[in-house]
TrEMBL record:
Domain Molybdopterin oxidoreductase N-terminal: 2-39
SUPFAM superfamilies: ADC-like (SSF50692), Formate dehydrogenase/DMSO reductase, domains 1-3 (SSF53706)
Family (UniProt): Belongs to the prokaryotic molybdopterin-containing oxidoreductase family.
Cofactor(s) required, per the database record: Mo-bis(molybdopterin guanine dinucleotide)
Pfam families in the cross-refs: Molybdopterin, Molybdopterin_N, Molydop_binding
Keyword terms: Metal-binding, Molybdenum, Oxidoreductase
Source organism: Rhodococcus sovatensis
Positions of region (Disordered): 19-68
CDD domains to which the protein is assigned, alphabetical: MopB_CT_DMSOR-BSOR-TMAOR (cd02793)
Name of the protein this chain belongs to: Molybdopterin-dependent oxidoreductase
All residue ranges annotated as the Molybdopterin oxidoreductase domain in the record: 44-497
Length: 761
């Protein structure tokens, strides 16, 4: 099982040579094609390694990270060095000085889950500074609990695809429903039903309107409205205005199930700020014709309508507003809680929304208790490292960044997920020590001082399952451990022993015993719910066990049915169109109700005079994030070895470039090369470059170096969505593009660093 789906593998000579998708998968992910050849790829870390400068000079801030040689050490040496450095930092600076936030998707599997392992290990040592929220839903994760009293429930208990296919007459999808993203699911998946559900909706006569700058954000036929990127909230306000002035809004629903509509309406109609949010006003912001907005609003009010908002719309400055305004608009239509109507968030952002949830707890490795209270919103890592002691706002609190001396990372690649990589590199120069566990020499591993070679999930046994999939799967080892790599669990167990906390960490179990223990524990839960499952050995032989999932869900149906007994976990118990709590925070950039905030990175602002193209830095279709970027499917998409950038023919012609050319994409933060694919399925001045090409600096000594390979995060802004959430805003950035006429530098991202012989022992 992988995040991109279930499959079986054939292996020869320690390498996967062929894979077969799960027979029950209706639309297997193309990313499966990256797996063959991945075990022994030259970018694997063959054994424990230490950065030469760290080994020779000891811990401390340095500008050599990302630009140094490595020295191979033995496992015993690595254990001594790692245990000694953790002990030094804890004794001298306290556990708060360890940043163990360690964000990242790592690989599927309930036991060998890298974050759970590193958190459990650090908790045994007395804790660490942690991170909260995610890069996926950084703004949503903070705003939605204020508005509907929940966050993850919006996805895991979303209206089922089956219900949408059968009941929805009009699907209005802000950000579309990009099928490429549904090919992945955190923790794995055994089926990909999105495309067939959309086909079934159409076959029934249902209509789809996709509001997105990219035509292919919607699978199959749809009315395509292409707004200026970043203007969706203005479009939604224009739609809401029509509903309000034409009396098409459902005042009964608003009275019974929501709070604060009146205050919002004063803003909508311009009574509170002097700006009525008319369709003409929305048109001026978005470029969508006012008549189209009026027609759509009327059409929405006349039919069973589901409004969806993708997660990408909240991965921008003021990202809280799109989901908040989406649910406000759906509240005005009054169809929330009715099958096929209402609101959805995250369809097309990951496979999970629309799939039936499992009604039991899943097998889970306990992470222990972290007594350290220091934490940061996850995307504030560079701010924290560069500004120890600095104050910042987060969700109504004034907090202070801790002084981090040691960064301990397992299972993530900040050079994929973070923004403004030049700034991140400077931030990574500040701590005394960076420890990275990864199977591959990713750019993050090449910035580490202590490099711990991990196995991949193909080299170990594990259990896999997710909240919204019926199968608990026996992930069976396909190949032996590569070279001198180790499971993260075994690494932590040995270091824990050295530091005197082995009992707490391992509880006396090997990894095999843990897997069986977690299964048996889970089996016990199910038995108490009168559900029988096979003994572990039988399960392992069979390869999977099927669980019942809840089908035919409608989001908030229970709330609609009984808003008193099933009150939402908000202060009012209702959907908060106006939040007194948020209003009370007094933030200028996130007020008490959904509102339009002019973006910085958008085509209608002053910055566009310098950088006139709007780049959408979205998720790739050929891989998961940066994982297996060297695989066959990902490599086949590259243009002259560079990440493809899609450009409209008008923008391409204006710059004298055509299909297959290499261009330099730049702004005042950085620059990267990319390979042109001309595509008119977008506005003239929109370009699209996915995340995930491994960062590959032309000059590793220069933190702001050109990336030869096409990583858009050298360009994106490292600013929080707002004072409320501080969520990541990596989705949108303004750029300029020019043809690259110099000799093409070779791609070196997948080459291991230079290994040297140590000069001091
Ligand atoms: P991955 O490439 O999945 O990216 O960012 P994330 O850091 O999750 O990195 C996972 C790493 O784990 C890989 O290096 C892999 O080799 C390693 N790994 C796999 N298995 C194991 C294991 O068993 N042990 C260890 N130690 N390591 C392992 C994803 C993040 O990026 C996310 S979720 C989103 S939604 C964001 N999206 C955007 C965006 O839309 N636009 C921009 N510009 N930037 C984004 N960044 C965010």
């Amino acid at each position: 099982m992988a995040h991109w789906g279930m499959y079986s593998a054939s292996a020869a000579d320690g390498e996967v040579v062929d894979i077969r998708p799960h027979a029950g998968d209706s639309s297997p992910s193309p990313a499966l094609g990256n797996v063959p050849g991945s075990v022994k790829h030259r970018s694997r870390i063959t054994g424990p390694s230490v950065r030469r400068g760290w080994l020779e000079n000891g811990p401390g801030p340095t500008d050599r990270r990302g630009n140094d040689d490595y020295v191979a050490v033995t496992w015993d040496e690595l254990t001594d060095l790692l245990a000694g450095e953790l002990r030094r930092v804890i004794d001298r600076h306290g556990n708060e000085a360890i940043y163990g936030g360690s964000y990242g998707w790592a690989s599927a599997g309930r036991f060998h889950h890298a974050q759970s392992q590193v958190h459990r290990f650090l908790n045994c040592l007395g804790g660490y500074t942690r991170s909260v929220n995610s890069y996926s839903t950084g703004a949503t994760g903070v705003i939605m609990p204020h508005v509907v009293g929940a966050h993850w429930k919006m996805f895991s208990r979303s209206t089922s695809w089956k219900v949408i296919a059968a009941e929805t007459d009009l699907l209005v999808a802000f950000g579309g429903v990009p099928a490429k993203n549904t090919s992945v699911n955190h923790g794995g998946t055994s089926d990909h039903p999105t495309e067939s559900a959309l086909d079934a909706l159409r076959a029934r006569g249902g209509e789809i309107v996709s509001v997105s700058p990219l035509r292919d954000d919607m699978h199959g036929a749809a009315t395509w409205l292409a707004p200026v990127p970043g203007s969706d909230v203005a479009v939604m306000l224009g739609l809401a205005y029509v509903l309000a002035v034409e009396n098409l809004h459902d005042t009964n629903f608003l009275d019974k199930y929501t709070t604060g509509y009146d205050t919002f309406e004063r803003y909508l109609l311009g009574a509170s700020d002097g700006i009525p949010k008319t369709p003409e006003w929305a048109s001026a912001k978005s470029g969508i014709a006012a008549e189209a907005i009026v027609d759509l609003a009327r059409s929405m009010a006349s039919r069973r309508t589901l409004i969806t908002v993708t997660w990408s719309l909240q991965r921008v400055k003021s990202g809280e507003q799109a989901p908040w305004m989406g649910i406000t608009l759906a509240s005005m239509l009054g169809q929330i809680g009715i099958p096929g109507g209402g609101f959805g968030h995250g369809y097309g952002s990951m496979n999970e929304p629309g799939l039936g949830p499992v009604p039991y707890p899943l097998p889970t490795l306990p992470q222990g208790l972290n007594p350290i209270t220091a934490h940061i919103p996850v995307a504030a890592i560079a701010d924290m490292l560069l500004g120890p002691g600095t104050e910042f706002d987060y969700n109504g609190r004034r907090m202070t960044y801790p002084d981090i001396k040691l960064v301990h990372w397992a299972g993530g690649n900040p050079f994929h997920h973070h923004q403004d990589l030049g700034r991140l590199r400077r931030a990574f120069g500040r701590p005394d020590t960076i420890v990275v566990h990864d199977p591959y020499w990713t750019p993050m591993a090449k910035h580490a001082d202590i490099v711990v070679p991990s196995t991949t999930s193909l080299e170990r046994n594990d259990l896999s399952c997710t909240r919204n999939d019926p199968l608990l799967v026996a992930m069976q080892q396909a190949v032996p451990r590569y070279a001198d790599s180790r499971d993260d669990y075994d690494t932590f167990a040995v270091v824990a022993r050295k530091m005197g906390v082995a009992d707490g960490f391992t509880e006396g179990r090997t990894s095999g015993e843990w897997i069986e223990h977690l299964y048996d524990q889970w089996r016990g839960y199910l038995r108490s719910a009168n559900v029988e499952t096979p003994e572990f050995d039988e399960f392992w032989r069979a390869g999977s066990v099927r669980m019942a999932t809840e089908e035919d869900l409608t989001l908030f149906a229970d709330y609609r049915e009984d808003p008193v007994s099933n009150a939402l976990r908000t202060p009012s118990g209702r959907i908060e169109i106006f939040s007194e709590v948020i209003d009370g925070f007094g933030y200028q950039d996130c007020i008490g109700h959904p509102a339009w905030f002019e973006p910085v990175e958008w085509l209608n602002g002053g910055r566009a005079q310098h950088f006139p193209l709007h780049l959408i830095a979205n998720q790739p279709r050929t891989r998961l994030h940066s994982q297996l970027d060297h695989g066959a499917t990902s490599q086949a998409s590259k243009v002259q070895g560079r990440e493809p950038i899609r450009m409209h023919s008008v923008a391409a012609a204006a710059r004298g470039v055509t299909d297959g050319d290499v261009v330099r994409v730049f702004n005042d933060r950085g620059a990267c090369l990319a390979g042109v694919v001309v595509d008119d399925g977008m506005l003239d001045d929109v370009v699209q470059l996915s995340t995930g090409a491994w960062y590959d600096p032309l000059d590793p000594a220069d933190t702001n170096s050109l990336c030869k390979h096409g990583n858009p995060n050298v360009l994106t802004p490292d600013v929080g969505a707002s004072s409320l959430s501080q969520g990541s805003t990596g989705q949108h950035v303004l750029v300029q593009i020019e043809r690259y006429d110099e000799a093409l530098p070779p791609i070196t991202a997948f080459d291991p660093p230079t290994m040297t012989v140590r000069s001091v022992g």
